[in-house]
Specification:
single chain, 2 domains, 190 residues, mainly alpha, 7 helices
Length: 190
């Protein structure tokens, strides 16, 4: 296939006039058709291959921060029936913990992907330039890139600063809740 594409590229480069345009279009079409099958490329040749374990993990997570990941249906059911401030307080804590877990998992995955991100950024840029940005890889790589960029920014702008401060505040609440639960469980062991 690589030889075939190379021949198409060479034919497009040596052609003139209308024939050149037609051969360039045929070459581009073949390359885009080949891209659709990138998941079947041999090991060592697949785009984003170095991110496979992280992409599988992210694919299993719902990256939409507005949707609960854990016990979604149970929390929604209880939320509809919950009466009183105490019940609502515990539901809000559960929702906050869900968000905190996302922040922690996202941070860990971005750290795990650090080495592979530079190569993946190039693939994403090339695919976007070609007008092809389909597949699970693109939103997940964009997520990892934005997480890595947010973590590595030296001088955050107002939006980045607010996002970082929000994460810190929520993680501090998470930390406090964890301490309370641990204390309660230790008390039960006495």
């Amino acid at each position: 296939m690589a030889h075939y594409v190379a021949e198409l590229i060479q034919a497009a480069e040596t052609a003139n006039g209308e024939e050149r345009q037609a051969k360039m279009a045929a070459c581009a079409s073949t390359i885009l058709d080949l891209w659709k099958h990138r998941g079947r490329f041999p090991s060592g040749m697949r785009p984003f291959e170095e991110l496979d374990p992280i992409l599988r993990t992210l694919d299993s997570l719902d990256l939409n921060a507005d949707t609960l990941r854990y016990y979604r249906s149970q929390i929604e059911m209880i939320d509809e029936d919950a009466e009183g401030a105490e019940g609502r307080r515990w539901l809000n804590i559960a929702k906050s913990l869900d968000y905190s877990a996302r922040v922690l998992i996202g941070y860990c995955l971005a750290r795990a992907a650090e080495g592979a991100l530079d190569k993946s950024r190039e693939w994403v840029a090339l695919a976007e330039a070609a007008g092809v940005d389909q597949g699970v890889e693109f939103p997940t790589v964009r997520f990892l890139v934005s997480e890595a960029d947010l973590r590595n920014v030296d001088n955050p702008d107002d939006k980045e600063r607010k996002m970082i401060e929000d994460r810190i505040a929520r993680l501090e609440v998470f930390q406090e809740m964890t301490s309370q639960v641990v204390a309660h469980l230790r008390e039960r062991l006495k």
